[in-house]
Every structure is written in structure tokens, then in C-alpha cells.
Amino acid sequence: MGTYIVFILLIAVLLGYIIYLHFQLVKKNLFIESTVKRLSGMEKSWSAEEMKRFLMEVRKVQHYSSFFNDKLFEEKSLEFLLENKKDSKIYIHYTKEETVARSILTEGFRYTDSFYKTALPVTNDRLDLLMKHNSRKSFGHYLIIICLADRIIDHYTAELDRHGLKGVNVENILNETPVSKNENSDTVYLLPNRYVKGFINHQTGEIAVNPDFNPSYDSPAFARNIKFLNSNNYIV
């Protein structure tokens, strides 16, 4: 009989704990939903200072501060990330190891098949950046910043169209080394390091600047890549 009572009490405790967890989850969801609605109803082109003030306000809610406690949305980080937004396309990529992040600064950004598999476009829309960052920050503390000047993208997009290569992504011809295949038979591309601005450690706020950065970099190899694709009768 005593064992039975203990068993019933244990079940009651477990049920109570489950109800408590469910209540906390509902509270968190309501908080996130109200925050998103608030952001959606405001001007999307917030300044860095406006975003900083809002995040400071959110941090006052201690229970949820862990969701907003990284350094990406501090003024210095945002200014570095968005500095080239007027005349360039900006992309971000996350990696776990500092050695990998620094090798990207010196060697370039290596990717397979599609540039957009791991490179996310960034605009001046802070809400969009917040959502993308929260969905990808678990991939690593080091946020790589890649910038391609609009004039480079426009020029080589027009060149691809002129040669009838409309199905080729412009990023895939912006490489100076021959493409290769990896062990999974994926096509491997290497975007020159000139397009890598640097990285931000979104936990510590550390910023590393690439001294070779030049978003308008143009190489004779790019035109040769188009001619190679054209001469090999590339078919989408």
C-alpha cells in the first residue's frame, strides 16, 4: 500500500512538472510573438542606436536575456557588418573554429555547388537579420562577412546573359582557381579572399578585418571562366 501511494505521488509530481514546463513554454512563445509583432509594426530601417536601445530594453526581461545577449547587435558590430550596404551585396556565413575563420580571410570562401547553401544575404532590415542570426548562430561563434560590389555583380550577370548562360550563378564564375570535385562529387568553388571583409565573434564582439578586402575586385580569370563555359556548350 505504501509503495502504491509513493507511486501515485510520483506521478502527480511529474504531471505537475510537465504542466509547469508547458506554462513556461507558452510564456516564452507569447513573449517572442509579441516581440516580433512589435518589430514588424515599426520602421524596418532602424539605426544601429535604435536597435541597441530596443535590445537593451529586451534584456531587462531576465528570463529571456539569453536569447539576446550576443554582441552582433551592438553598434560597432552592426556598423562593420552593414558599412558597405549602399553599393554592395552583403552575405554572412557562420563557422565554429577561429582557425577556419582566419583561413577564409586569407584563402577565400570555399563552398560546394551553390554559394547560397551557407551564405545568407543581409540587408538593412534589422528584423530580417535578427531572424537569420537566431536561426544560424548555433553553427558557430564566428560570423564571416562577404561583400560583392553591385557593379561587379551587374557586369558579370550581363556578361552571362550575353553569352546565353542565364542559368549560371554569377558567384560561380568569380573564382581564380579551377573548380574541383570533392569526395561526394560536389563541385567546389573558391571565392577570392578580396570579397571577404572580415569576421565578427558574435559572443565576444571581436572584429577581425581582412587587409586584402576589396568588394570591387575584378580579375581577368572571371571573363575566362565565362568563355570556358561558353566554349563547352554549358547546358542548364
Task: Kindly describe this structure.
A five-stranded antiparallel sheet has the order 3-1-4-7-8, with helices on both faces. The protein is 44% helix and 17% strand. By secondary structure, the chain is α+β, with helices and mostly antiparallel strands. About 3% of the residues have low confidence.
Observed structural traits:
about 240 residues, alpha+beta, about 45% helix
Secondary structure: elements and pairs:
Blueprint: H1 2-40, H2 48-59, H3 75-82, E1 88-95, H4 98-107, E2 109-112, E3 120-122, H5 126-136, E4 142-149, H6 150-162, E5 180-181, E6 187-191, E7 196-201, E8 207-209, H7 220-231
Antiparallel strand pairs: 1-3, 1-4, 2-6, 4-7, 5-6, 7-8
Concise structural overview:
The protein is α+β, with helices and mostly antiparallel strands.
Beta-strand content bin: 15-25%
* Secondary structure category: alpha+beta
Unreliable stretches covering 5 or more consecutive residues: 61-67
Question: Any idea what the shape is?
Answer: elongated
The separation of the N and C termini measures 75 Å
Order of strands, main sheet, comes to 3-1-4-7-8
Which radius of gyration do the C-alpha atoms yield? 24 Å
Oligomer: single chain
Main sheet overview = 5 strands, antiparallel
Roughly how much helix do the residues carry, as a percent range?
A: 40-55%
Order of helices and strands: HHHEHEEHEHEEEEH
Arithmetic mean pLDDT: 83
Number of strands: 8
Number of helices: 7
